[in-house]
Specification:
The structure is a single chain. This protein is mainly beta. Helices cover about 5% and strands about 30% of the residues.
């Protein structure tokens, strides 16, 4: 077997989603750097996705799907807070910005008892999963922007194309987005998939810096969650 070479191509305004044996994506799909066994030469075509947004009449526009997904119902990738790639194990022992424990934070910390203090409370764009994966002006929403979405939209639990989640409808202009209830990843397993949604903001929970602010539903509440867990990202743009 051999690994597919990492994608070195770029396409302005698009994000790379993988490889396919057909240019239109109807053939066999392969992931970047996937290990495959060849019995004959094959041609692989890069697959691209252009992120789009919905204007809900708020201060920012909201993406139509999660990072790592190509449809509104797609779960997409899970990210630890401040990390920009999915992984197989979500725990403090694998978290990028600590030395193995929640009390040994190395970045984004306001409390000396939790590690090295830098008083940074908003993710740098280099640690923002939306900006790194989608580029352009895309970024993760702040705590205030998630709260604006919560307060200025009607949240309706529904099933869309077989996927549970919330339809979020603007009270201002009636436009809507769908947020799948994709659960979260703790260690290697997905928990509460189909029942609850957990979406990161870019804002640290200052009173407990091993946590970051999160939009959590089933009940459309705004909460905080341990930075080591794998949650979803729904991006915003100006």
């Amino acid at each position: 077997s051999q690994a597919i070479a990492a994608n070195a191509f770029t396409r302005s305004g698009y994000t790379f989603t993988g490889w396919n044996t057909k240019a239109n994506g109807s053939g066999t799909s392969y992931t970047d750097k996937q290990s495959i066994t060849l019995t004959q030469d094959i041609t692989l075509y890069a697959q691209w996705f252009m992120p789009t947004y919905v204007d809900l009449g708020l201060s920012v526009k909201w993406a139509t799907c999660n990072i790592g997904a190509t449809t509104p119902e797609g779960y997409g990738d899970y990210f630890a807070w401040g990390e920009t790639e999915p992984k197989t194990n979500y725990s403090w022992s694998t978290y990028k910005y600590c030395n193995g424990l929640s009390s040994t934070l190395t970045k984004y910390n306001t409390d000396s008892s939790r590690g090295t203090v830098d008083n940074k409370t908003t993710l740098d764009l280099s640690d923002d999963a939306a900006r790194v994966n989608w580029g352009g002006n895309w970024r993760m929403p702040t705590r205030a922007e998630q709260d604006e979405l919560r307060k200025n939209c009607i949240w309706t639990w529904t099933t869309q194309n077989g996927v549970n989640g919330c339809k979020v409808t603007s009270k201002t202009n009636g436009n809507s987005i769908f947020l799948p209830a994709a659960g979260y990843r703790g260690s290697a397993s997905v928990l509460n998939g189909g029942s609850y949604g957990y979406y990161w903001s870019s804002s640290l929970y200052e009173s407990g810096p091993s946590y970051a602010y999160t939009l959590y539903f089933g009940s459309e509440i705004w909460s905080s969650y341990g930075r080591n867990y794998g949650l979803k990202v729904r991006a915003v743009c100006p």
